[in-house]
Design brief:
- By secondary structure, the chain is an alpha/beta fold.
- It has 14 helices and 19 strands.
- The relative contact order is 0.12.
């Protein structure tokens, strides 16, 4: 993390002496709270040891919802350049996520008959975790990734990568070079874009006449129903329902023609978009999901205002459980140091008084400390050395993968803890092989 963080606040509307931020999609004044998680540091900004005694910036984690388009969003307190120019998240360290990407590439090649004459672009291509599979299939690819340290890993995988933020300017430059996209991929990037209209406008420009865009993002319905408040952090500016995605697409001359439900990241959607005049036949799933979201109240502001109390209750339950374990003398360690973990740890005030340390498969984080709570991050092998009584799985969306990888901890009686959607204890000795 740099010593200086650039702060930016979007314009506000003044009403009756009060300043209100405005919606990044439709420019309506934002007056309704979705949830307020207090003050929190940037969640992917792991700290080196010499930074622990320095001032650490905290920003409000106060989530609002637009009463017009129902986009759930954070204000842009920090410019993307301050977050993503050097980034600590490498997609390839999740085996299940890389396999998810491989299956997607094979499916897309078959469904849209992609070959050597097509052009595939991925925005926020990270370390080449996905595009490497298209390369192996002989399909030309270009990654667009603003984090130079992560893009370097993609280049080692022979994935051509542009180190830059995506928007309309880059899209125009690419088409001036004669490059048009047959497929544009955006996996878990839309939430990280403060200027949605520039970003989606750029995709519209880059997309060929018969091209397809696929976007994957955590579904707001799951965030609410499964109490996934820890997926809220400053790196995620927006949280999407399908009705809002449909509006966003139409605003930029695009049309959603298919949607799939995914299990990734606690429950996600994959939407397929094309130019509004393209000939793709709409799937019945599109109308069905729009109708479902309207039926459950996603176009009713009161649906959003009841979320806070669920979050408060989870905090109380988790802290009561952890306090009871510590009072009994239990030794606790964490597994993982993802962004979502830092929202949970900072909101609940869980530091080294509860967790001795956490571990992560990403060597970039080893020897560093979690933001805010300053929990040390070690290699996974540290678990076998420490032999804790409980292993707190912080990336709960990878619960199954981690339990399988670490089930040997049951040999000394260690159990797993998961906090979302509610506190759960898993005894690996009781799992069926």
């Amino acid at each position: 993390m740099s010593g200086e963080v650039a702060v930016t606040l979007k314009p506000s509307n003044r009403t009756g002496g009060l300043h209100y931020p405005v919606c990044r999609l439709c420019n309506t004044s934002l007056k309704t709270t979705f949830v307020d998680l207090g003050m929190s540091p940037l969640c992917e900004s792991v700290l080196a040891a010499d930074q622990l005694d320095q001032m650490e910036p905290f920003f409000p984690l106060h989530v609002l919802v637009c009463s017009n388009c129902f986009l759930v969003q954070l204000r842009e307190y920090v410019r993307p350049e301050a977050i993503f120019t050097e980034y600590g998240y490498f997609s390839s360290y999740s085996t299940s996520w890389v396999e998810h990407a491989r299956r997607y590439c094979v499916m897309m090649q078959s469904r849209f008959d992609l070959g050597a004459n097509n052009q595939v672009f991925e925005i926020a291509s990270n370390d080449g975790y996905l595009l490497q599979h298209f390369v192996q299939l002989g399909i030309p690819v270009t990654g667009i990734e603003p984090a130079a340290n992560v893009a370097a890993a993609a280049l080692q995988k022979k994935v051509p990568t542009i180190v830059e933020f995506f928007g309309q300017d880059l899209a125009r430059r690419l088409i001036s070079e004669g490059r048009r996209a047959d497929l544009i991929i955006g996996n878990n990037v839309l939430a990280q874009v403060p200027d949605l209209n520039d970003f989606v406008g750029g995709m519209t420009i880059l997309l060929g006449e018969t091209g397809v865009i696929t976007l994957e993002f955590p579904h707001l319905e799951h965030l609410i129903n499964q109490n996934q408040f820890d997926t809220i952090y400053h790196e995620h500016f927006s949280y999407f329902s399908f009705v809002t995605i449909d509006r966003l697409a139409k605003q930029h001359g695009l049309r959603v023609f298919d949607v799939e439900h995914l299990t990734t990241h606690g429950g996600s959607l994959r939407v397929y978009l094309c130019h509004s005049g393209a000939s793709y036949v709409p799937s019945p799933a599109v109308a069905d999901l729009l109708a479902h979201e309207r039926q459950i109240g996603f176009e009713d502001i009161s649906t959003y205002t009841s979320f806070s109390e669920k979050v408060h209750d989870t905090k109380r339950q988790l802290l009561s459980f952890l306090i009871e374990l510590k009072q009994k003398g239990a030794k606790l360690c964490g597994y993982g140091a993802p962004g979502k973990a830092n929202t949970l740890l900072n909101y609940c005030g869980i530091g080294t008084d509860f967790l001795d340390f956490t571990v992560d498969r990403n060597p970039y984080k080893h020897g560093r400390y979690t933001p805010g709570m300053h929990i040390p991050i070690y290699p996974v092998s540290a678990i076998d050395d420490a032999r804790p009584d409980y292993l707190f799985i912080l990336p709960w969306n990878l619960k199954q993968e981690i339990v399988e990888q670490m089930r040997h901890v049951g040999d000394w009686g260690c159990k797993f803890i998961v906090a979302i959607p509610r506190v759960e204890v898993i005894d690996p000795r009781e799992l069926v092989s």
